[in-house]
Amino acid sequence: MTIVEEFNDYRAKMNGKILEENNTVLKRLFNLDTNAFAPGALDGKVKELIGLSSSMVLRCDDCIKYHLGKCHELGVTTQEVFEVFSIANLIGGTIVIPHLRRAVEFWEELNK
């Protein structure tokens, strides 16, 4: 099983368990997240690139993987992803570099 499959399977499994509990606040939070990334004044690709950059600066590997997956689905190129990586590292500083390494590994796996 690849790192992409492991991540997607685990995320789906745990999201299912969370939503099974039928907690109104958590369900609304998940819904808000879904709606925030829906196309609007900004298209979905731009929103995912913003999400990727923000996730890198916040150093959330799960979020980085999620947004990389969505970027891949939306046809984002490697050049575009690396421009986002460069901005995120500039804003976040060198502490983002370990997350950059894992992001590159995940992006390479998505592109196999």
TrEMBL record:
One of its GO terms (molecular function) is peroxiredoxin activity. SUPFAM superfamilies: AhpD-like. Transmembrane segments: none annotated. InterPro entries: AhpD-like, AhpD_core, CMD-like. Residues 25-105 form the Carboxymuconolactone decarboxylase-like domain. Keywords: Oxidoreductase, Peroxidase. Pfam families: CMD. This is Alkylhydroperoxidase. It comes from Roseivirga echinicomitans.
